[in-house]
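Quick one, probably user error.
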């Protein structure tokens, strides 16, 4: 990840993940190896991409879906 205005992150401690993004990509860190698999809908992924490209901040209304 590179430094830019289009970076951000959101923590999901109960789900066991932290998501980081910038204009170049997305990184998901596992913070709890006993967590259920993380499932992101295509709409959520597209929303993340739009926010990273526009520089908008990210809020908890991401729509995280877990199977």
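Nope, works fine. Designed sequence:
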């Amino acid at each position: 990840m590179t430094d830019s205005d289009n970076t951000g992150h959101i923590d999901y401690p109960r789900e066991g993940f932290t998501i980081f993004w910038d204009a170049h990509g997305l990184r998901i860190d596992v913070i709890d190896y006993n967590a259920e698999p993380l499932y992101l809908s295509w709409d959520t992924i597209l929303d993340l991409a739009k926010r990273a490209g526009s520089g908008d901040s990210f809020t908890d209304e991401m729509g995280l879906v877990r199977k």
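Helices lie at 42-54.
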